[in-house]
From TrEMBL:
One of its GO terms (molecular function) is NADP binding. Gene3D superfamilies: 3.30.70.260, Dihydrodipicolinate Reductase, domain 2, NAD(P)-binding Rossmann-like Domain. PANTHER family: HOMOSERINE DEHYDROGENASE. This is Homoserine dehydrogenase.
Amino acid sequence: MSDIQPFRQTVESFIASRGWTPTRFGRTVAGDPLFVFDLREGREPRSETRTRILKAMQEYGETKTRAPMRIGVAGLGNVGATLVSILQKDADSLTKKLGRQIVVTSVAARSRSRDRGVDISGLEWFDDPVALAKSPDIDLFVELIGGEDGPALAAVRAALEIGRPVVTANKALLAKHGVSLARLAEESGAQLGFEAAVAGGIPVIKTLREGLGTASIARVYGIMNGTCNYILTRMGEEPIDFSECLRDAQDLGYAEADPTFDVEGFDTAHKLSILSTLCFGYEIAPDRIHVEGITRITQADIRVAADLGYKIKLLGIAQRSDDGIEQRVHPTLVPKSSAIAGVDGVMNAISLETDHVHELLLAGPGAGGPPTASSVLSDILDIARGAKVPPLGVPSPELLPYKQAPMRAHEGGYYIRLNAKDVPGALAAIATRMAEKGISIESVIQRPDLHVIEPADTDIVTRTVVLLTQDTLESNVREALDLIAADGVIVGRPQLIRIETL
Ligand SMILES: NC(=O)c1ccc[n+]([C@@H]2O[C@H](COP(=O)([O-])OP(=O)(O)OC[C@H]3O[C@@H](n4cnc5c(N)ncnc54)[C@H](OP(=O)(O)O)[C@@H]3O)[C@@H](O)[C@H]2O)c1
């Protein structure tokens, strides 16, 4: 019986796994550029030819897995320079671990003369990251430039198009183009690693792609932005307001000169959208997330929350429901006793709620050169070992079109802070409207030291009142607040913070 069928399959999978063209296989392995075309048309090679080609494939594989893996790094900032330095410093131990050398051979950045604290004198320099991505002298391309489009996108595409593996830390790029890049990688047989794109040094992508077996995830939530967590933690430790904490975070290098992206919650939304895809198998949808930032959080909110047994954290939360996927980013009251409440400062944490392992909390440094470079390195090592996984957990044609579920009611109720006019009957009017909407009030806090001056405050005397509701629908709360505003008994915009039972 002919063994042409298994032979043909072996050749085809060799070609697909390397992202080669049939002609390249013919030239490099079979010694005949048309060999694969002939094979596909049913021409059966003689048994000695088959034996020769199988041996050549085996030898090629062995040589390739022993040969040094040559890396090209585009972007030599915080993460890129740290990665090059780690790869140089730990070269011997990495070779021992892998049985194969990993060598940075080429780099790209904007300024050739800038001192980056790392020796790049022997490395080939590229001004153009796309040219580096396509260079025939590298085996793997690392993108550490940043930005959702521009040179980062062009270079990553260029590498994947020729079947070259890519590692990136770029969450903005992944959130916007993740599905098309995953498709490109799958078509060309290249690997695409992005462990560092979500929560810096925490190996959450690997856990989701490879570590949970068939466990089904019901909810994922976490603290994914170190800048916001630092600010909220400081506000809890010292009586300083949001703007002062933000200035300190900028002085310490924890916040960008323009912090909007972080403090308004968009960075968390990008990361959440990537996690959500890996958890639930839907296409990435960074624009279909309810997003609220932390800029309106005051000392009063932090103190009242603490007195009631809560901390305020900026959480990204995604959960499956019968109507689709609900994704939201907002400040949240979490019980002080919960594990996530203990994650302070610039630390990040991600919790995965699954049917098999129940709750898994991964916590660690979410940013910074060394933790992020370490995640980039772990992707490089996986690729050097020959790991093959679909970038988004399932092959991209199997991703479901994103189905956005409406915001749901929250089990833990709501924290509402409002400035009531200091007139007889104001509080009674507020309580009446709440009752009309079926909202039960758990606590009412009114202390002179909690007075918050809202921008809309005029010379009208007000008292700041905090209400904690029992479980209720968000629509009920919003309707009650609209009625209260229309009654004219409050001044300014109420503060509304969801309470999560975790
Ligand atoms: N920093 C972190 O803690 C962290 C954490 C997680 C993920 N990330 C992600 O990692 C990536 C890199 O972040 P980073 O903090 O290292 O950024 P960075 O310090 O701003 O470095 C960016 C690098 O890209 C280079 N670059 C910019 N435009 C270029 C172009 N057109 N051609 C070639 N090179 C160009 C810059 O060159 P010059 O140096 O010559 O200007 C610089 O070396 C981003 O996607 C970021 O979101 C960072």
